[in-house]
Amino acid sequence: TPSPVTVTVTGAAGQIGYALLFRIASGQLIGPDTPINLKLLEIPKAVTAAEGTAMELTDCAFPLLRSIDVTDDARRAFDGTNVALLVGARPRTQGMERGDLLEANGGIFKPQGEAINAGAAEDVRVLAVGNPANTNALITQAHAPDVPAERFTAMTRLDHNRALAQLAAKLDVGVNDIRKLAIWGNHSATQYPDLFHAEVGGKNAAEQVEQSWLADEFIPTVAKRGAAIIEARGASSAASAANAAIDHVHTWVNGTAEGDWTSAGVVSDGSYGVPEGLISSFPVTARDGRYEIVQGLDIDPFSRERIDASVAELTEERDTVRRLGYI
Ligand code: NAX
């Protein structure tokens, strides 16, 4: 059997945590043979609830689940961790300005970055799910200078999966018939789901849909899907977000298929005019346990404008947290 992997989940008592932990413990995160040690981080008042979830995990008698540690101490939670899923975050409440939101989350992700730097395993991989995910990942990375920057990522896989599902429904094909779709920029309403490089049945996807559908239906439906779920469900996406987190890490570890790519928020190397160091979504491949930005794509003017707008928002978020002293 492969050696055990330690997985830390923050916000473990939340709704994404509840949809995520059982799938990790059943072997879907890394692979069906890899034993798992779970570490659950919560704020003090939610530790008891997280302990309740731990009891249920125990009661599943998952063959791969070796241990569960519940704590409100970040140092302990990230000690020896191989995979850190940063789900817990301060949600935006009514009347809260964007700056307040960034400030509240800086207070969460800075100490978590420090704890990762202090104690995580050599090969640690970090995924920020909690919003604003890209900038939370950036803050975490800034406080873990001993960990290679490429190990810090933000989740746009849910946006990617939403885009796959919308396009598959439009063209009446299976999601597996679609290749090379991409989400660019921020995990926010400015994100840009790109069909111009996507292929369906080996042919260009954008050429198989009306431009009006692409611009007026597809892009806004994908970008505003989170709000539509809240409207319908009375709560934000949870199981689909957990599913995307599983996909993100599974792909990172196990790789993308030949001739395909996926989407992830990764540290920019300056490609496509995205300022170096920003954590922005790109089309990425995964090979040998590393995400790499797909290089050399032609960006048409329609796409350029949308990528630039989303990247401008990321730049603004970075400037705000810089002003606040978080990076
Ligand atoms: P919940 O409010 O249900 O759970 C969040 C949990 O985090 C709570 O139990 C809370 O006690 C805990 N928490 C808060 N501060 C913490 C800290 N400092 N350390 C450890 N735990 C802490 O939210 P949930 O629905 O689970 O969503 C979690 C986050 O995911 C939110 O920020 C949400 O906006 C974000 N999302 C991101 C998505 C993405 O695609 N990147 C999609 C889904 C989701 O909206």
UniProtKB/TrEMBL annotation:
<feature type="binding site">
    <location>
        <position position="112"/>
    </location>
    <ligand>
        <name>NAD(+)</name>
    </ligand>
</feature>
<feature type="binding site">
    <location>
        <begin position="11"/>
        <end position="17"/>
    </location>
    <ligand>
        <name>NAD(+)</name>
    </ligand>
</feature>
<comment type="function">
    <text>Catalyzes the reversible oxidation of malate to oxaloacetate.</text>
</comment>
<keyword id="KW-0520">NAD</keyword>
<feature type="binding site">
    <location>
        <begin position="129"/>
        <end position="131"/>
    </location>
    <ligand>
        <name>NAD(+)</name>
    </ligand>
</feature>
<dbReference type="InterPro" id="IPR001557">
    <property type="entry name" value="L-lactate/malate_DH"/>
</dbReference>
<feature type="active site" description="Proton acceptor">
    <location>
        <position position="187"/>
    </location>
</feature>
<dbReference type="InterPro" id="IPR015955">
    <property type="entry name" value="Lactate_DH/Glyco_Ohase_4_C"/>
</dbReference>
<dbReference type="InterPro" id="IPR001236">
    <property type="entry name" value="Lactate/malate_DH_N"/>
</dbReference>
<dbReference type="GO" id="GO:0006099">
    <property type="term" value="P:tricarboxylic acid cycle"/>
</dbReference>
<dbReference type="Pfam" id="PF00056">
    <property type="entry name" value="Ldh_1_N"/>
</dbReference>
<feature type="binding site">
    <location>
        <position position="131"/>
    </location>
    <ligand>
        <name>substrate</name>
    </ligand>
</feature>
<dbReference type="Pfam" id="PF02866">
    <property type="entry name" value="Ldh_1_C"/>
</dbReference>
<feature type="binding site">
    <location>
        <position position="162"/>
    </location>
    <ligand>
        <name>substrate</name>
    </ligand>
</feature>
<dbReference type="InterPro" id="IPR022383">
    <property type="entry name" value="Lactate/malate_DH_C"/>
</dbReference>
<feature type="binding site">
    <location>
        <position position="92"/>
    </location>
    <ligand>
        <name>substrate</name>
    </ligand>
</feature>
<dbReference type="GO" id="GO:0006108">
    <property type="term" value="P:malate metabolic process"/>
</dbReference>
<comment type="similarity">
    <text>Belongs to the LDH/MDH superfamily. MDH type 2 family.</text>
</comment>
<dbReference type="InterPro" id="IPR036291">
    <property type="entry name" value="NAD(P)-bd_dom_sf"/>
</dbReference>
<protein>
    <recommendedName>
        <fullName>Malate dehydrogenase</fullName>
        <ecNumber>1.1.1.37</ecNumber>
    </recommendedName>
</protein>
<feature type="binding site">
    <location>
        <position position="105"/>
    </location>
    <ligand>
        <name>NAD(+)</name>
    </ligand>
</feature>
<dbReference type="InterPro" id="IPR001252">
    <property type="entry name" value="Malate_DH_AS"/>
</dbReference>
<feature type="binding site">
    <location>
        <position position="98"/>
    </location>
    <ligand>
        <name>substrate</name>
    </ligand>
</feature>
<feature type="domain" description="Lactate/malate dehydrogenase C-terminal">
    <location>
        <begin position="156"/>
        <end position="321"/>
    </location>
</feature>
<keyword id="KW-0560">Oxidoreductase</keyword>
<feature type="domain" description="Lactate/malate dehydrogenase N-terminal">
    <location>
        <begin position="6"/>
        <end position="146"/>
    </location>
</feature>
<dbReference type="GO" id="GO:0030060">
    <property type="term" value="F:L-malate dehydrogenase (NAD+) activity"/>
</dbReference>
<dbReference type="InterPro" id="IPR010945">
    <property type="entry name" value="Malate_DH_type2"/>
</dbReference>
<keyword id="KW-0816">Tricarboxylic acid cycle</keyword>
